[in-house]
Design brief:
The protein has 79 residues and is of the alpha+beta class. Helix content is 46%, strand content 13%. Helix 2 runs antiparallel to helix 3. About 8% of the residues have low confidence.
C-alpha cells in the first residue's frame, strides 16, 4: 500500500524565505504569490494545486509518491 503524501513537508516549501539576492530580479515580489505553470497565483492555491496534481499522478498514473511530487515541483517557479 502506498504511503500517504507528506503534505506538511510540501507546504514547508512555501514557508521558507529565500535569501535576498544582491540585485533583485524584476519578477521578485513579496506579495504571497508564486508562479506555477507560467501563471502567478496565491501561494495557498499553488499548494492546493500541487497536492491535487501529485495525488492524481500517484494514484491515477501509477507513480511512486516521490516521483509524483518531484514531477509536480518542476512546475513551480519561485519569483
Amino acid at each position: 500500500m502506498a504511503r500517504k503524501p507528506d503534505w506538511q513537508a510540501l507546504g514547508a516549501l512555501f514557508d521558507q524565505t529565500p535569501p535576498a539576492p544582491a540585485t533583485a530580479p524584476p519578477s521578485t515580489n513579496e506579495d504571497g504569490t508564486a508562479v506555477y505553470n507560467g501563471e502567478r497565483l496565491p501561494k495557498w492555491l499553488v499548494r492546493d494545486l500541487m497536492q491535487e496534481r501529485a495525488a492524481i499522478r500517484e494514484y491515477g498514473g501509477g507513480m511512486t509518491r516521490e516521483e509524483a511530487e518531484a514531477l509536480t515541483l518542476r512546475g513551480l517557479q519561485r519569483g
